[in-house]
Amino acid sequence: MTQTISVDGVDIRIEGDGPETLVMIHGWPDTCRLWDAQVAALQAHFRCVRFTWPGFDVAQPRRPMSLTQTVDFIHQVVTATSPGRPVTLLLHDWGCVFGYEYAMAHPSTVSRIVGVDVGDGGTPEHVRSLSLRAKLAIALYQGWLALAWRIGGGLSQRTGDRMTRWMARKARAPADMNLVGSCQNYPYDITWTHSHGSYRQRRRFDPACPMLYVWGERKPFHFHTTAWAEALAKKPGSRALPLHTGHWVMKERPDEFNAAVLAWLAPAG
Questions:
Q1: Residue 189 within any structural domain of the chain
Q2: Assigned domain for 96 exists
Q3: Range of the domain at 243
Q4: Could you report the per-residue pLDDT of 84-125, keeping only the tens digit for each?
């Protein structure tokens, strides 16, 4: 069963007919298509809800959102698709950043979290754990994308889009490059320039519900600290799982990732 509804002008896809709802939230430079393999594997057991972030659809106008607006949008999606029942969040990249913030703001609406490749990234502990080379690499790619956002919205959209696609290829992003553009870079601009309300009000994430954290270990640096992952794994019902992949775990090893998610969800599924 597939259904599409509209929330704040954004198409929300609902696939599957299970008793529990999974809300799947992607990051940069992806769209809701990131989760194709997960929906195929999970829709027999769960209602899978996914969408392309406001502002991430290259066919639509630019739409940068503050952190408050982002959390409010997720809340609209959750209440529209699972009224009165908590959901499980399946998150990746910026989807983790925003999904964690949402879970802390609305804990009664989230029963479980699957976070992929972003844990306590950005905390003072995480920053201290990074080598100088890693810090420079993060500043380079994020600064480049923030610049592409500004150029794409002012001097030349074509140039901004080309800059973004170049970085997406360098990062080995699996996204369709026809669907990648500078419009998707506003989180980096907000991070570095504090535009659109900034992200300064972000809180330290300590999950109040069971969590499965999966990350790719074949990377030059990680977006979590070892201490954070180890502490999470000790919490009742939670698990920390490395897989031999890069950043896009669910695309590089979909069968292994899907099996791990389904096995972890099964006890309460």
A1: no
A2: yes
A3: 2-123+198-268
A4: 999 999 999 999 999 999 999 999 999 999 999 999 999 999
The total of structural domains in the chain comes to 1
234 has a pLDDT exceeding 50: yes
223: in domain: yes
List pLDDT tens digits, range 168-225.
Answer: 999 999 999 999 999 999 999 999 999 998 998 999 999 999 999 999 999 999 999 9
Which two tokens mark 259? 């099996």
Domain with 223 in it: what CATH number?
Answer: 3.40.50.1820
**Residue 163: inside a domain, yes or no?**
no
Helix 157-170 / helix 132-153 crossing angle, nearest 10 deg: 150
- Percent of the chain whose pLDDT exceeds 70: 99
Of 55, 94, 66, nearest in space to 195 by CA: 66
d(CA 240, CA 210): 11
d(CA 146, CA 20): 37
Q: Distances from the Cα of 61 to the Cαs of 135, 152, 184, in angstroms?
A: 32, 12, 11
83 phi, psi to nearest 5 deg: -65, 125
DSSP string, 5-24: EEETTEEEEEE---SSEEEE
Give the torsion sign (CA, 16, 21, 27, 31). Answer: positive
